[in-house]
Structure formats: C-alpha cells, structure tokens
Amino acid sequence: MSEVTAAAGTHEIGFQDQAFLSSQEKLEKKKTVQNRNRIGREFDQFLGQQKISLELVKKFMHDQAKDRAYTPTTLSNRLSHLKKYIHKQYSVVYSDVELQTVSQWIQKKSEHHKKKKSSIFTRAQIITYLKIESEEPTVIRAKLIFVFGVFSLGRMEELSLIEFDDVKETEQGIDFILNRVKATEDHKSHRFIIPRLLDDVNLVDLFNKYKKLVPQQTGRVWRRYYPHGGFGAAPLGKSTCSEVPCSVATSLGLSDPESYTGHGLRATGCVLMYLARATLIIIMRAGNWASEAIVLEYIRNCDIEVEQRAAMIAGLQNQIPQRIENPAPQPIAPIAPQPAVQNPVVIPQTTEHPTYNFAGATFSNCMFNFK
After folding, report:
1. Each residue of 85-122: pLDDT tens digit?
2. What is the pLDDT of residues 302-345, one digit of tens each?
3. Pairwise CA distance, residues 221 & 210, whole Å
4. What pLDDT score does 326 carry?
5. What is the DSSP letter of 317?
C-alpha cells in the first residue's frame, strides 16, 4: 500500500484524482528528460574535443560541486542522469563499480550540506497577525501577501505574478487565479477563494483598502512602495515577497524569525489542510505537488504529528492529540405527531399468510413486521 493510500484512509481515488496523478506523472517524466538533457549539454561543453574517459567523467562531477555543498540527493541524481546520457549519446556504459569512487566522494561531499527547513505558522498566529491594528501601507500589503500565500499554497514566484485581472470580489470573499510555475497542460492555473471573514477580520475590506492605495489597478497586484511617494507602478519582486513571512514572525515576536521563509506559506497551507483532515490527494491537488514525498515531509514534522507519536509510544492513549476536535453531536429534531389514519386497515390475526388489501390507506413513519 502506498503512503498516499495509507494516509488517505478510506478515501477512494476518483476519476479526477486519477487524471491529476496521471498528469503529474507525465510532468515528472518530462522534467526527468529535461534535467538529463541539461546535464548532457553541460557535459558536452565540458568535454569539448576531448575523448570521453572515466577520468573526465570524474573531473566533471568534481567541478559540479567545486564551491558548494549539494544536497544528499542532488549529486547522485546528476551522476545517474549523466550515466544515462553518456550511454545514449556516446554508447559508453560505466558500471557502478567503475563509478564507486565518485559515489563515495558524493556521499562525503553531501555530509556538509545543511538542509534548510522553513518554520510553519499556526492558525492562531495567522489570526493574531491579521488583527494587529496598522494603517501602514506596507503592513496592509504584507497581510494580503501572507493570506494569499497560505490559502493558495503558492510559491513566491507564483504569488508575485498575480494580476488584478486574476482577482475579483464575490459573495464568498476574494476569488483569484494562481498561475502555476510548474504546470501541466491541464493544470496551468488554479482557482482559490479567500473567505470574506477569518475570525472577525474582514479580508475583503483589507484588499479594497489596499486597492485604494495603488494608483493604477492594472497589471501586477503587488507594487513597490516608496516612502515619499506611496505605491508606484513598479511590481514587487519575488525576493521582496519572500521577506514577508520573516517580517510576520518578527511582528509576532516568534523565535528565530529568519527560519520563516517564503516557502513557509506553502508549507503552512499544507499542514493546516492536513489538520482539517484533508486527504493527501486533496492536498496534492491544491498545491500541485507531483509527489506525496514533500507533503509527507511537511506533515511528519508538524507539531501535532510529533506529539501524537510521543503519546502513542508512551502508551498515553487518552492523551493523543487529535487533528481537529470532533464536532459536538447535533440534537435530533423531534418528529411531529402524525394525524391518525382514516379507515385504518385491520389485519386479521391468523397463523397463515393471508393477502392484505391496502387500497386507500396512507402510511407515515411506519414499520411492518410480517410473520
């Protein structure tokens, strides 16, 4: 059983889910071929007029990571792509034994890499930040970028490209389109809705307040701010948008605010959906993830998952935290008394199986038990 199936529980993968997974698999294959060809072009340029040899392959890999430490998987993936490219392009096959020294070097090189993980906001922290009273234009803009990012599970390069034509006000709240950077033919853009009210914060009013501060409501939504001139026509870049989570964490007085990166909004939306009992398939579709591995990594490291594991291992069954509180049972409305049936049918008492005539009779809330 895959981790998607296991985490989804009894959720059946429907036709739309299957189509989504199929499109994501095609995207992954396309990306694999693109990565292989890119590495191949780099190797061709490195090789030049030289004759291919194992020593040159080793030197190429060493040059790839001369000045930086790669992730534990990046160099291994690049070596795997390179092997396949050399086999296809040069009809030369190198075995794992021949490349063993390279693999050992990759492992040693990767030991110095420190993977950067973004911290995640809780729902309470989101609401607390939105309730901070401020008429400062940059704070209003930061609040909106923050909310748009969490509700769309968006990447910063996607959020920074939102245009006014992609956003509209509806009865439900703010309806907007997010154009995906990593998209298939069938999933180029996703539609999201930000509710009108979050707790008692009116997000539609907040967006309208921001729009009044922007001189021209065409093109990109997020604009640069000039202290002596207000918002201008120049769009806000991806890097500046990525600074919003850190500024939010600083405003809330959270420890290590620099650990709250731009990608943290995407992770926050993912974890909040999981805490609301969303299945992995639903989360993957919302965030346009091709694999469940990233989603599971976010989930495994969220506080409630860690606390659940600790309580289970310690045998504290009555202290295992739940993803969401079970809603209180709703009282069942009493059944109104029904008027008496006119001309009731009289069923004779007999041990045989007679035929009954119910012509003209009306039944309501009845249960029959024939013997």
Report:
1. 888 888 888 887 777 777 776 666 655 555 567 888 99
2. 777 777 778 788 877 676 666 654 444 444 444 455 555 555 55
3. 10
4. 43
5. G
Q: Any idea which residue has 């990046």 for tokens?
A: 74
The torsion region of residue 342 among left (phi > 0), alpha (psi -120 to 50) and beta comes to beta
Specify the DSSP class assigned to residue 123.
H
Helical ranges in the chain per DSSP H = 3-8, 15-47, 54-64, 74-90, 100-110, 123-130, 137-152, 156-159, 203-213, 238-242, 244-252, 264-275, 280-287, 292-300, 303-313
Closest CA to 34 of 236, 182, 162, 208: 182
Beta-sheet pairing, 197-198 with 173-179: unpaired
Q: Which residues contact 273 (CB under 8 A, 6 or more apart)?
A: 153, 282, 283, 286
3-state class (DSSP) for residue 65: coil
- How far apart, in Å, do the first and last CA atoms of the chain sit? 48
Query: What does the alpha-carbon distance between residue 209 and residue 135 come to, in Å, rounded to a whole number?
Result: 10
CA 312 vs CA 12, 74, 251, 306, 321: distances in Å: 27, 35, 36, 10, 10
- For the full predicted model, state whether its pTM sits above 0.70: no
Across the range 152-176, mean pLDDT stands at 92
Q: Can you read off the two tokens belonging to residue 230?
A: 């207000």
Q: What is the CA radius of gyration of the chain?
A: 30
- C-alpha 303/C-alpha 106 separation (Å) is 33
Nearest CA among 189, 77, 208, 89 for reference residue 140: 208
Strands 223-226 and 189-195: unpaired
The number of residues in the chain equals 371
What is the signed CA dihedral for 139, 141, 145, 151, rounded to 10 degrees? 90
The number of CA neighbours under 13 Å toward the Cβ of 116 is 10
Q: How far apart are CA 187 and CA 200, in angstroms?
A: 34
- At residue 237, what is the residue type? G
Task: List 226's β-bridge partners, or say none.
Answer: 230
DSSP code of residue 336: P
Q: How does residue 252 score in pLDDT terms, banded at 50, 70 and 90? A: very high
Q: Which two tokens stand for residue 289?
A: 């993830």
Joined tokens for residue 241: 């948008």
- Two tokens, residue 315: 């045998």
